[in-house]
Each structure stands twice: as structure tokens, then as C-alpha cells.
């Protein structure tokens, strides 16, 4: 058993850490508050090749191992979690095209997605269906009968990260709305952003996760060539999306570790600097207990996240492991952000300090890529069915 990163992983993490400290940490608070899009950071991430994280080398991607993938999201989220969102949805979608796309789709999109020249996201959720994806109502009907007949999509997607920058946007649709069970009639279509009838209609106001946009997308009779059916087969869309969310859960667990690490860093430094009753507040046992608890939870979340990531590199199907890591790390991020805020006293509530952003960003980690309650039921079902075990 080895709990250390390889030399290559350590070097990779250190270079990312430098980038985050130099380019994200100094601007995060002001840019977040002003609602400014982080164009310069996106450009630097492009130069670092980060848009190619989940893309095979043959298409110009970095194709990093899953632990390095996690390190990327951890470090960036330590600086500003919203930035990790820009990269996260792009990586989930790129992974999905790389693993499930036809050779023509891979050739057409992956090289430009790897450089960030093209960007993408993933459109699953609808106003009436999030967890219950089989309940979506977006429909793609064929305009004609042959295998080359275009699809015509009608429906509305919501909460779509990167919607204003995604091209193509993979959209989960029903190609056979009458299919039973419903997933057999679900497919993913790669929709070009300039398609007539495709419109990003609103940016949704939100508590945190600023920096990246979350939008409603309306598809009104959008015509999509049959060549844009992901993998060239109907009826696989839900499975294609759900398998991609496995890497998404590692990414969310790692983002949570980054938030918790920042909460720890801020709490530690505040506990040393702030004085009350003529002594640093870190001398008070109540503050020490809270600080130690942040450190314990943070380190446990990190180990669990790296464990789940390394299992994925073993080529093992790991819904249970990634789900467990995502649940634990996201609850940890919430708790650590709250505790760091308490250690800051009144200043923790001020927009002049970093902890209030951590407090606003952390809750999303328990919602995205499967709510924690739903993931708990997934973990429990696999344990009960004996397809996964603990111990
Ligand atoms: C900032 C942000 C960014 C997002 N980005 C994207 C994106 O890029 N692409 C995308 O497709 N979606 C995105 N989403 C949507 C996100 O994936 C959904 O919000 C999430 O899946 C939950 O769906 P819902 O909001 O419809 O909640 P619901 O499914 O309505 O759930 C409501 C509550 O019911 C509980 N619940 C539901 N079903 C069950 C069940 N079977 N058992 C137990 N409890 C249950 C849930 O745990 C939750 O507490 C984003 C959301 C946010 C907030």
C-alpha cells in the first residue's frame, strides 16, 4: 500500500499549484463578486492543455491518469471552484465523446476540444426532470424514414453549465418516447451551437458557482444530421451519459477536497493572526478542536477521493467507490466551509474574506452529478445486490 503520489503526479500537481496561486487566487474574490467571465484564466488553461485532460493523446489530449485528473480539480477549486466548473463539464462531455463517439465523431471534435479551440458541456437536466432522467420530455423525431434522415429536436434543458460556449452541446433526448423501459428510447445528439432554433434563453441566478454560466437552453425544431447521433446507435443515451458521470463524480469529489483545503488554509492562518483576550484565537481549545476537525475530515476526504480515482485507473467499474467519495467529500466541503466561517467570527460573513465564497460554493457539491441522497441509494443497492462490498 502506497499513499504517496508518483514523481510525475507530484510535479504535475506542483505546476498546477503554481498556476492557481499565480493566476486564480489573486483575482477570484473580485472577479467572482463582479460577475466577470474569467476569459484570461480560460486562455491560460488552454495553454496548459487542460481542456484535453480527458482526451486520448492520439487526438492531442493530455489523457492524464485519474488521480492527476482529480488533482487538477482539487487545485483549481482551492483557488476558485467556479473555474473548475468550466473544465468539469467540458471534461465529462469530452470523455463521453472519446468513449462512445463513432470514429468520425472523435476525429471531428476531439482534436479541437483538446486544445480548447472548441468547448463543450452536457445537457441532461430539464425543468421537470433532473434525478429522474428517464422522465425527460425533450423529443427528437426523424424527418423521414431512411437511416440518413435528420433528427428534429424539441424541448428545454436547464442548468446547463458552459451553455454559452459549448459547440457541440451533447443533448439527451427521447428518440422513442414510447419505449419501455424509457431508457431504451433515449439517445444523445451532438447539437451545433449555430443550429436554427437552438437558443440559450437565460442565465440562471445562483448562490455561488460564479465564473461559469448556468443556462436554460431551448430547442425549437432544431434539425440535427443523423451523423450526430452519439455512437451512431439509438437507445444508448442514458447509459452513455451515466457512464460519463462516473468521472464527473471524481471531479466533484476532488473539487470538494479543494474547497475544504482552502477552508483549512484560511482557518489556520486566521487562527494564528486574530487575537482576542490578548492572545491568538488559536490558543483557545474550542478553536483548536474545530481546526483539528477540519483537518481530519479534509484528509479523510482526500484519501477517499484518491482511492476512488486510483481504482478507476485499475480499469475497474467503480460507481460505488466514486459515489462514496463524492458523498463524503462533498459533505466534508460543506462542514469545513461552515467551520472555517465560524473560526472567522463576524469577518467570516464579510465579502472581504474568502470563506464566504467557500460557504456559497460548497453546497453545489452535494447536488451535482447525482444528489448525495440519490447516490446513497445507489451505493446501498449495489451493496445489497452484492455487486460491491466494503471491507
Ligand atoms: C449550478 C448547477 C449546475 C448544473 N449543471 C448541469 C449541467 O451542466 N448539465 C445538466 O444536465 N444538469 C446540470 N445541473 C442539474 C443537476 O444535475 C440537477 O440539479 C440534479 O441532478 C438534481 O436534479 P433536480 O434539480 O431536478 O432535483 P430533483 O431530481 O427534483 O430532486 C429534488 C430532491 O428530491 C430528491 N430525490 C429525487 N429523486 C429521488 C429518489 N429516487 N430517491 C431519493 N431522493 C430523491 C433529491 O435528492 C433532492 O433532494 C446543474 C445544477 C446546478 C444547481
Shape: globular
Number of structural domains: 3
Low-confidence parts, pLDDT < 50 over ≥5 residues? none
Helix content: 40-55%
Q: Which radius of gyration do the C-alpha atoms yield? A: 21 Å
CATH class of the largest domain: Mainly Alpha
Task: Briefly note the structural class of the backbone.
Answer: alpha+beta
Spatially, the strands of the biggest sheet line up as: 1-2-6-5
The total of helices stands at 10
CATH topology of the largest domain: Butyryl-CoA Dehydrogenase, subunit A, domain 3
pLDDT average, as an integer? 96
Bound ligands, each once: flavin-adenine dinucleotide
Superfamily at the CATH H level of the largest domain? Butyryl-CoA Dehydrogenase, subunit A, domain 3
Give the amount of beta strand, in percent.
Answer: 5-15%
Largest sheet: 4 strands, antiparallel
- Architecture of the largest domain in CATH? Up-down Bundle
Q: What gap, in angstroms, lies between the N and C termini?
A: 15 Å
Q: Give the H and E element order.
A: HHHHHEEEEEEHEEHHHH
Layout of SSEs?
Layout lengths: L6 H28 L4 H9 L18 H14 L1 H20 L2 H13 L23 E4 L8 E11 L7 E6 L11 E6 L6 E6 L10 E11 L12 H37 L1 E2 L2 E2 L4 H29 L5 H25 L11 H7 L10 H14 L6
Antiparallel strand pairs: 1-2, 2-6, 3-4, 5-6, 7-8
Helix pairs in contact: 1-3, 3-4, 3-6, 3-7, 4-5, 4-6, 6-7, 6-8, 7-8, 8-9, 8-10
Flavin-adenine dinucleotide (FAD) binds next to strand 2 and helix 10.
Amino acid at each position: 500500500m502506497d499513499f504517496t503520489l508518483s514523481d510525475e503526479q507530484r510535479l504535475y500537481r506542483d505546476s498546477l499549484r503554481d498556476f492557481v496561486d499565480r493566476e486564480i487566487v489573486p483575482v477570484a474574490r473580485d472577479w467572482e463578486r463582479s460577475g466577470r467571465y474569467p476569459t484570461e484564466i480560460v486562455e491560460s488553461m488552454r495553454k496548459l492543455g487542460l481542456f484535453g485532460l480527458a482526451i486520448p493523446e492520439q487526438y492531442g489530449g493530455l489523457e492524464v491518469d485519474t488521480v492527476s485528473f482529480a488533482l487538477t480539480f482539487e487545485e483549481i477549486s482551492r483557488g476558485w471552484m467556479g473555474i473548475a466548473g468550466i473544465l468539469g463539464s467540458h471534461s465529462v462531455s469530452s470523455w463521453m465523446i472519446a468513449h462512445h463517439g463513432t470514429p468520425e465523431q472523435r476525429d471531428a471534435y476531439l482534436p479541437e476540444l483538446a486544445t480548447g479551440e472548441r468547448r463543450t458541456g452536457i445537457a441532461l437536466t430539464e425543468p421537470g426532470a433532473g434525478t429522474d432522467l428517464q422522465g425527460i420530455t425533450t423529443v427528437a423525431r426523424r424527418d423521414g424514414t431512411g437511416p440518413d434522415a435528420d433528427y428534429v429536436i424539441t424541448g428545454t434543458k436547464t442548468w446547463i453549465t458552459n451553455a454559452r460556449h459549448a459547440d457541440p452541446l451533447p443533448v439527451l433526448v427521447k428518440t422513442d418516447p414510447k419505449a419501455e423501459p424509457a431508457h431504451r428510447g433515449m439517445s444523445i445528439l451532438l447539437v451545433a451551437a449555430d443550429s436554427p432554433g437552438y437558443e440559450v434563453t437565460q442565465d440562471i441566478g445562483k448562490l455561488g458557482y460564479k465564473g461559469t454560466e448556468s443556462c436554460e437552453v431551448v430547442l425549437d425544431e432544431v434539425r440535427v444530421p443523423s451523423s450526430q447521433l452519439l455512437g451512431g446507435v439509438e437507445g444508448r443515451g442514458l447509459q452513455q451519459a451515466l457512464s460519463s458521470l462516473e468521472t464527473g463524480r471524481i471531479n466533484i469529489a476532488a473539487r470538494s477536497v479543494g474547497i475544504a483545503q482552502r477552508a483549512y488554509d484560511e482557518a489556520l492562518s486566521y487562527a494564528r493572526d486574530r487575537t482576542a483576550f490578548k492572545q491568538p484565537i488559536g490558543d483557545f481549545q474550542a478553536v483548536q478542536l474545530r481546526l483539528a476537525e477540519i483537518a481530519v475530515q479534509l484528509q479523510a476526504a482526500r484519501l477517499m477521493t484518491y482511492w476512488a480515482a486510483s481504482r478507476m485507473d485499475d480499469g475497474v467499474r467503480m460507481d460505488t467507490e466514486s459515489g462514496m467519495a463524492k458523498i463524503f467529500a462533498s459533505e466534508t466541503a460543506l462542514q469545513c466551509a461552515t467551520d472555517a466561517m465560524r473560526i472567522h467570527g463576524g469577518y467570516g460573513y464579510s465579502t472581504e474574506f474568502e470563506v464566504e465564497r467557500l460557504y456559497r460554493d460548497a453546497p453545489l457539491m452535494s447536488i451535482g452529478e447525482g444528489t448525495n441522497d440519490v447516490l446513497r441509494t445507489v451505493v446501498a443497492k449495489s451493496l445489497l445486490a452484492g455487486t460491491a462490498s466494503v471491507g
